[in-house]
Amino acid sequence: MVKPKTVIEKIWEKHVVHKEGDQNLLYIDLHLVHEVTSPQAFEGLRLNNRKVRRTDLTFATMDHNVPTYKRHEVRDATSKKQMDTLQQNCQEFGVSLADMYHPDQGIVHVIGPELGLTQPGKTIVCGDSHTSTHGAFGALGFGIGTSEVEHVLATQTVWQGTPKTLNLKVVGDLRPGITAKDLMLAIIAKFGVGFGTGYIVEYTGKAIHDLPMEGRMTICNMSIEAGARAGLISPDETTVEFLRGRRHVPQKTADFEKAAAEWLSLATDEGAEYDETLVINAAEVEPQVTWGTNPAMCVPVSGCTPRLEDVNYDPNVKRALEYMGLEEGQPIESIEVDHIFIGSCTNSRVRDLRNAAEIVKGKKLHSNIKKAIVVPGSFTVKMQAEKEGLDQIFIDAGFEWRNSGCSACLGMNDDVIPSGGRCASTSNRNFEGRQGNGARTHLVSPEMAAAAAIHGHFIDVRQLTGILN
Ligand SMILES: CC(C)[C@H](C(=O)O)[C@@H](O)C(=O)O
Ligand code: SF4
């Protein structure tokens, strides 16, 4: 009998082209490039007189630094330089680029799946930690450093240590009104920011496979916040249907069906073993809100910030509460916010925007809110959302409707939260200073961000939708 295998083992084995001890040289099927982590890599090629080995497997976009308000107004000199450099490098090395005016432009982890570049079974790298997002498709997506970006550009391979595998098993069903973001925040809150260290995580269980691709991307995206090397979900019919008809998948029906059959065969076999298994019950998950400065500092919206005596006077908790300007034991619902950010590679796809718009529709921003922005993950998302009239729903409520990019997810462009500002954010990181010096970030789902926008403080969105009274 053939030994049952996980999707991780199946993809891994197909891509190891050379081994030295514990180190494996992996062939890379797709290399995504952005302006921040590529300049030195291209410079390295230039100095060594090398070419990009597979320009056909390399795609670049501008996302981190692009202005989302007025496209042509790049105020920051470093941002401008990085974008100009990417433009020149792509031209010189023959790499296709979606620059900030290109219809395919968007956050690198949004456009890969959107264009059908991301496919099951592929090894995908990018000089960006959230490359794990692509794992939603049953692909192995790794974030790599700039020197590795150079290595992949030159050789289309990368060195990786042999991974350990972890089964993050989600039992039970998510209750109505609970999102993939809540589930992932609850997973990190339960198992900690280090549970994935050294592992490639596969998310399994019915609740995971019931999620649409957007929700799966939200889950896999945040694997990195738990220290995982990658996170993925076995491909299934939902994966196949999402990809059907996209630009880079086989176009003829017969060819697509053949590819789809191969993709489905990659799913983890019944009885396959993992190095480690963790279990969470989806039915216990409530809407989540982070109160601290890492994603595990998170509680249900009905909860409170920790009491110091309950956490042994943990200095990290104390410091986080201080930075966040919160009291110990403070009810989450009493926390008032003044900024709202709906966007980032975690939650900026059309479905995310639709879900937020549903909450906002016909309402107005609360007077506590100084600024609320909606930043579509890509130009394509923006166009689709506008076609559906979502932009108008947000604008009527008092939100700003922006152009696509990473925006206020990180303080690398003009969209920063001011010092002392408190933001309900749909992004993935709440580190000190992440959204700007002294800015305070609370990670939530798009629905919860929308609810906070209307009420000026955190509130269980299920109260607004009639799921809870
Ligand atoms: C700028 C880039 C290297 C960085 C990353 O790797 O994740 C960014 O995308 C982030 O989210 O902090
Ligand atoms: S949206 Fe945020 S997390 Fe995603 S790639 Fe951009 S900066 Fe990184």
From TrEMBL:
CDD domains: IPMI (cd01583)
Keyword check for Membrane: no
PROSITE patterns, alphabetized: ACONITASE_1, ACONITASE_2
Catalytic activity: (2R,3S)-3-isopropylmalate = (2S)-2-isopropylmalate; citrate = D-threo-isocitrate
Enzyme class: lyase
Iron-sulfur listed as a keyword: yes
Enzyme Commission no: 4.2.1.33
Gene3D superfamilies: Aconitase, domain 3
Keywords: 4Fe-4S, Amino-acid biosynthesis, Branched-chain amino acid biosynthesis, Iron, Iron-sulfur, Leucine biosynthesis, Lyase, Metal-binding
Residue stretches making up the Aconitase/3-isopropylmalate dehydratase large subunit alpha/beta/alpha domain: 9-456
GO molecular function: 3-isopropylmalate dehydratase activity
Binding partners and assembly: Heterodimer of LeuC and LeuD.
Family: Belongs to the aconitase/IPM isomerase family. LeuC type 1 subfamily.
Its biological purpose: Catalyzes the isomerization between 2-isopropylmalate and 3-isopropylmalate, via the formation of 2-isopropylmaleate.
HAMAP family with a match to the protein in the record: LeuC_type1
Protein name, as recorded: 3-isopropylmalate dehydratase large subunit
Record organism: Aciduricibacillus chroicocephali
